[in-house]
Amino acid sequence: MNLAALAADLRTAARDTNQRRLLVLAGDRDAGIDAAFDVLDGADVPDDEVAFVTAREGFRFERVRPKHARTLLGTTRTVVVCDAHEEFSPNVLGRLAGVVDGGGLFVLLAPPLDEWPETDGSFEESLAVPPVSVSDVGGRFRTRLVETLRTHPGVAVVNLDTDTVERNGSVDAPPGRDDHTPSPPHGHTYPRAAYDACLTADQSRTLAALERLRNAGEAVVVEADRGRGKSSAAGLAAGSLAADGRDVLVTAPAYGNAREVFARAIELLRETGTFGSHDEEAHVVSARGGGRIRFTDPPTAATRPDDPDVLLVDEAAAVPVRLLAAFADAPSAGFFTTVHGYEGAGRGFSVRFRDRLAESDLSVTDVQMDEPIRYARSDPVETWAFRTLLLDARPAVSPLVTDAAPESTEYRALSADELASDEHLLREVFGLLVLAHYRTEPDDLARLLDAPNLECRALMHDGHVVSVALLAREGGLDAETRRSMYEGERVRGNMLPDVFTSQLRDEDAAAPIGYRVMRIATHHAVRSSGLGSRLLSEIHAEKEAKGDGNADVDYLGVGYGATPELLSFWDDNGYSTVHFSTTRNETSGEYSALMLNPLTEAGQRLHDRHAGWFLDRMPGVLSDPLSDADPDVVRAAIRACDASPPVELTDREWRVVVGASFGPGMYTTAPDAFRTLAHRALNDNDSPCSPEAERLLVRKVLQGNPWATVADELDYHSTRNAMKALGDASVSLVERYGSDVAAVETERQRFEQT
Fold first, then answer.
1. pLDDT of 303-313, one tens digit each?
2. Which candidate, 383, 406, 439, 408, places its Cα nearest to that of 587?
């Protein structure tokens, strides 16, 4: 077998079609590394165009550990060698597949393919959530991976143990190279050089749509799979706008995500002779004539510093919806988002933000980019990655499910074996999860198929998935594990017990058995029709029932980035708030709420302890780490707690409260007394205060914000009006919670008689 010749043939086929090829070297690891060097010799690639991704050291090529594969995103190499023998995961596979340039090779060093499904690695160990062991982890994803390697076009397989080529990587009737040169549209206003820099007709069409951003009141949303040139289009638009004297503010999750935007903008400004200067440290590019392009992080961009003319948001799907909503107030805005990213797919942007964008004053233009930039259409490595990792999975098409209703659906427990054997079912389930969540990664597919602590439940309508939930078994840990968790050791896959134990100091919290609703998603065509509630109801009934010799399930739980709508949804479905984080969730940008739905006496005791502690803590944390929490989120979180804080005021405190409510007294004399009453009112299902008054209680009494800030945020005409409103609210509090207190009645009579 001549590996160098095989590599040369694959490289020739890849270059001739501007596609990529995948070469699998299956067998012993050392033999695979030696074979990879033969492949690189045959591929005739300069060393600086090769990335060797391995946990091993000692290579003359660029070497990246698999767990750091993300650092290669946004870069290209002619050849990427991936050592799948150690630190390998589906995420690594997906990220690296996107790094290989057109005409290049993706080389995968793998165990013998017949053995790989049963070969556990570090990723499989991560799926062994206590109390289960790695022997309980399935091999379904690896079986799927091997099957696609053996059947997909453009994949060559070499068996190193037998020294044979099992597949030569051929592609039937590959398309020729597309040398079409895009041209600018008639009447374009961006520079001709910007359109000359476009590499595809898609890019040119997108740039033409982005010309709308020259006018106020416009929004352009660009969606594309990775590798379509959306960031380059954003950069060309930014450069064109700056050359025209506009102030362009660019934001992204990190500056590294926006680096391509700035690179293309600078190139265009130089090409048009309008480049002024570049402060690389400050991330500011100045153009002649006063225009500029500057970068800030999303929280800063939400405040629109120095009133930019245009806001451009790259990788918008990775920016919290809370911040995206603030961007909709910009004079004009462009949103650029990846639909199916190699590092993870997520449609939270589309599902949650698009509704808010539609409600804004901006006129929205949508652009979809389909044509790859770095390689030709129908590239076999891309289609293999999409097929293997389900990056393009979608739920059932809307017409098939639009008449679904709770009473028309069937509740199903979908086993991992059933999902692995039914590609159509798996795609509908995973497609719903991708659609509903910010960031669903390739690793999540493997977890769905192989993690022994996960269960999948669904509602089916005419054979199609319309609502799905992923449940993670947690707790049931022995005393030694609970003790180590209490002392700071992280225990995988037990999110709720870990928070209760390590943060809230409850060493017994990991003893009860619970199921956490990791994800729940309902088809977008039938949202708000009761399907999610029906699914949760069925899960509750199933887990509450005893049988099959299984241990009792003590509680159902959930943790998520809290919004008023979500808190209300879970509250309506029997879940009660037991914890509220003091830092924002990195994914959603919201503070996280943990909620429990107890099923047994043990679950009830766990719930009651933490519900009480939650209410005890809230007045303190609201005045410090949660001083910026949305008042409607605070209201909903406290009201969803199935416990009641006591109203225990001394007679002196009651006299101060009554004096401030009915007489000349002052709220600042005894703010703790007002906090106690405000806290109780927010927890009361029959609140004595209006929603407007409750927001005032949160922002001023509980969070302690300055009067001027409170009046401005809550739209009072003046601080005096806000103060009067608090007095009115205090009257309602006294009448509800002090009606049977003698000191209250005596004090009220004194003022009512004057």
1. 999 999 999 99
2. 439
Nearest to 604 by CA among 641, 554, 640: 554
Interatomic CA distance for residues 128 and 125, integer angstroms: 5
User: What are the tokens at 204?
Assistant: 């040119």
Query: Between vectors from CA 44 to CA 38 and to CA 50, what angle results, nearest 5°?
Result: 80
654-676: pLDDT as tens digits: 999 998 888 887 788 888 999 99
- CA dist 317 and 739 (Å) reads 52
Residue 749 amino acid letter: Q
Domains of the chain: 3-168 (3.40.50.11040), 192-361 (3.40.50.300), 651-752 (no CATH)
Q: How confident is the model at residue 437 (pLDDT cuts 50, 70, 90)?
A: low
The predicted model scores a pTM of 0.88
Tell me: the pLDDT tens digits for 207-260? 999 999 999 999 999 988 877 889 999 999 999 999 999 999 999 988 888 889
- Taking the CA atoms of 428, 221, 305 and 695 in sequence, report the sign of the dihedral they define: negative
- pLDDT (tens digit per residue) in 256-284: 888 899 999 999 999 999 999 999 999 99
Q: Which residues contact 586 (CB under 8 A, 6 or more apart)?
A: none
pLDDT at res. 641: 96
Listing DSSP states for 690-740 in one string gives: -HHHHHHIIIIIIT---HHHHHHHTT-SSHHHHHHHHHHHHHHHHHHHSTT
Which pair of tokens denotes residue 237? Answer: 């638009």
Structure-token match 């005021």, residue found: 649
From residue 203, alpha-carbon distances to 149, 200, 218, 232, 371 in Å are 32, 5, 19, 8, 8
Distance CA 685, CA 702 (A): 19
Instruction: Quickly count: other Cβ atoms within 10 Å of residue 355's Cβ.
Output: 11
* Predicted local distance difference test score (pLDDT) of residue 514: 97
Helix (H, G, I), strand (E, B) or coil at 246: coil
**∠ at Cα 297 (296, 303), nearest 5°?**
75
Considering only CA atoms, give the Rg of the chain: 30
Spatial CB neighbours of 691, under 8 Å, sequence gap ≥ 6: 635
520 labelled binding-site residue: yes
Please tell me the distance from the alpha carbon of residue 486 to that of residue 476, in angstroms, as a whole number.
Answer: 15
Which parts of 181-329 are beta strand (E)? 218-224, 247-251, 275-279, 284-287, 292-295, 310-314
Of 641, 623, 611, the residue nearest 698 (C-alpha): 623
CA dist., res. 677 & res. 670, Å (int): 12
**37 exposed, middle or buried (CB, 10 Å; 0-12, 13-18, 19+)?**
middle
Q: Cβ contacts of residue 652 below 8 Å, gap of 6+?
A: none
| C-alpha span between 25 and 34 (Å, rounded) | 10
CB 551 within 8 Å of CB 476: yes
353, amino acid identity: F
First to last CA, the chain: 106
Distant-in-sequence, close-in-space partners of 288: CB < 8 Å, separation ≥ 6: 273, 274, 275, 276
- CA dist., res. 22 & res. 108, Å (int): 7
- Specify the pLDDT at position 716: 95
Spell out the SS3 assignment of 60-110: CCEEECHHHHHHHCCCCEEEEEEECCCCCCHHHHHHHHCCEEEEEEEEEEE
The verdict on whether residue 521 carries a ligand-binding annotation is: yes
C-beta neighbour count of 71 within 10 angstroms: 11
601 is in an annotated binding site: no
3-state helix, strand, coil in the chain (%, to 5): 45, 20, 35
- 8 A C-beta contact, residue 8 and residue 21: no
- Give the contacts of 274 (CB within 8 A, at least 6 positions apart): 242, 243, 287, 288, 289, 291
